[in-house]
Specification:
mainly beta
Amino acid sequence: VQLVESGGGLVQAGGSLRLSCAASGFTFHDYAISWFRQAPGKEREGVSGISRYDDSGDPSTYYDDFVKGRFTISTDNAKTTVYLTMNDLKPEDTAIYYCAAGGSPRLRLKTWRWLYLYDLWGQGTQVTVSS
């Protein structure tokens, strides 16, 4: 049972990266997946999450305000992989990025950032944005 992140690296401000989170060993559709990041000396914070369904029964996505319009979360169910496409990167986006699987398929707007909701974490991938 694991999540493996990849795709991090060094990029100049304004550049783009796509992070991947490959899941294995569990039923992919039964878990919501979110991305978090942690910069040196700072707490881990939620970046984006994807819920398998919302009140209407459709998948839904969540973003923190500082990445809205720049980052996009998506999923390839056939590959059991979740992606985070990051555009217009800024030096303040520099951090280790982690993906995490929640204990249920559904996230909610007010709680998707709560770390304790997530049972499984990847090892992280470093993203460094130079100015």
